[in-house]
Amino acid sequence: MVPVYVFDPRLLAGHPLGFAKAGAVRRQFLAEAVRDLRQQLRQVGSDLVVRVGLPEEVLPALAQELGAAAVYASAEVTQEEQAVETALEERLEADGRSLHLFWQATLHHLDDLPMPVRNLPDVFTQFKNKVEKFGKVRPQFAAPTNLTFAETLDRGTVPAVPEAADYQPAFRGGETEALGRLHDYFWTKDLLRTYKETRNGMLGLDYSSRFSGWLALGCLSPRFVLAEIQRYETERTQNESTYWLGFELLWRDYFRFVAVKFGNRIFRSHGLKEEPLRRAPAVTKSAQHSFEQWRLGETGVPLIDANMKELLATGYMSNRGRQNVASFLVKDLLLDWRWGAAWFESQLIDYDPCSNWGNWLYVAGVGNDPRENRYFDILRQATYYDAAGAYVKHWLPQLTGVPAEQVHRVGLLTNDEQRSFGVRLGVDYPNPLVDVRKWGQADGGR
Ligand SMILES: Cc1cc2nc3c(=O)[nH]c(=O)nc-3n(C[C@H](O)[C@H](O)[C@H](O)COP(=O)(O)OP(=O)(O)OC[C@H]3O[C@@H](n4cnc5c(N)ncnc54)[C@H](O)[C@@H]3O)c2cc1C
Asked: Is the predicted pLDDT of residue 165 greater than 80, yes or no?
């Protein structure tokens, strides 16, 4: 057995809106994960062969060089990934070799769902209830402890990501870091106990688990996370928080099964809806300009900008932040939700096609659950979840001198206030892109 990882140059391809499909921070996290995997394999007597190129070309060539009978990989569910699988299989078969794909990634195996995936419920809660009652989670495999490696084989090197040199990662990619974080979060800091109360936070590292990046790349198994939750429930405590982390893993499963059921519909403007509700927003100069300001964190709305700056610097954003910036893009800037999803795809270290496009569908109101379609009043959200303004001031230090009760409405400061708080609108911080006086009135929802 020869473990191989292929870095696909298609990750560097440009999006028509002017950025790489996978930005530097995301590629850095991936490179760290692959280096760590190599280290793990070396510790058990094997190694990881690393190549750069198209997997459907590199793998058949390597299989030929080695005289391998078959290639084994995990099965993907979305179009671009499946196109690679198909091309790979065709080339391998032309050489008399086979491709074996394995269902991985989710807590519940596709084959163990209590319904055929074509009958997946359109409402998450119905899915959750069925799976909790009738689903099963397969046991984990033990990791191999003793492998061998063909010494003559060129191991290759993990490509460096020079553009990401100055990023500010909270965590590094790779299983070692993932297991360390889980141990810290559950056992050392005992934070699982209060997860349900803290999970809507935005500032710091400990309000939520931060497992997402490792789960997305396969450095951490959801089945292992669940087993650790259960151990915690036996050894420490069982409460709403311990339940809730497992519940969130079901959302993750659900979005993967939604992608299987609906295929490419998750990528189209009207999503899972049968008919377009309205025409997709037009690609105008002004729309592109608003999108640039959103993407770079320069909308003049502090909660949005702070979150977008955090994403740029770290490749991560809290769930609360993601919901707000997505709602703002779709419902306040009236832009095409797919632009937002494409930017998240480029930036997120936890980018996963199903979770990303699936969550965007729901925020954009084109998923299949009508109850998920709601508007976020950004000011109400900001004053509720960042009452003291500590989060926005952390990412927008130019607002440090603005008092907490005004920081989320900074666009409304008078000239005198700007002078006394040490911030000039349009100079140190942008004027707001939208009329912020519309917020704070109606129930903006939490
Ligand atoms: C517009 C938008 C885009 C998103 N894109 C992604 C994405 O590309 N990849 C991704 O992993 N998550 C995505 N999410 C979901 C969620 O925001 C992140 O999973 C979560 O913030 C990660 O932080 P955490 O690991 O600390 O989460 P925790 O709160 O600790 O949750 C534990 C785990 O549960 C899963 N989970 C939690 N919430 C969700 C959810 N709503 N959907 C799917 N899985 C969830 C994640 O795997 C997460 O690691 C998106 C959410 C929104 C609103």
From this structure: no
Tell me if 323 CB under 6 Å of ligand 1: yes
The residue whose CA has the least distance to atom 24 of ligand 1 is 210
The C-alpha angle with vertex 443 and arms to 441 and 444, in degrees rounded to 5, equals 95
pTM for the model: 0.97
Alpha helices in 367-414 (DSSP H): 378-385, 390-395, 404-407
Q: Tell me: pLDDT of 372 over 70.
A: no
The Cα 429–Cα 174 span in angstroms is 37
Of the candidates 140, 160, 143, 239, the one whose C-alpha atom is nearest the C-alpha of residue 195 is: 239
CA of 354 to the centre of ligand 1 (A): 11
Helix (H), strand (E) at residue 167: none
Q: What residues form DSSP beta bridges with 351?
A: none
Per-residue pLDDT at 444: 47
Cα 192 from Cα 249, distance rounded (Å): 14
Which tokens go with 410? 């900074």
Cα(317) to ligand 1 centroid in Å equals 9
307, 296 in Cβ contact below 8 A? no
What residue type is assigned to position 298 of the chain? E
Residue nearest to atom 46 of ligand 1 (CA): 212
CA triple 307-311-313, angle to 5 deg: 115
- 3-class secondary-structure state, position 377: coil
In terms of phi and psi (left: phi > 0; alpha: psi -120 to 50; beta: otherwise), the region of 204 is left
CA atoms of 45 and 41, how far apart (whole Å) = 7
Report pLDDT for 283: 86
pLDDT digits (tens, 9 = 90+) for 11-23: 999 998 999 999 9
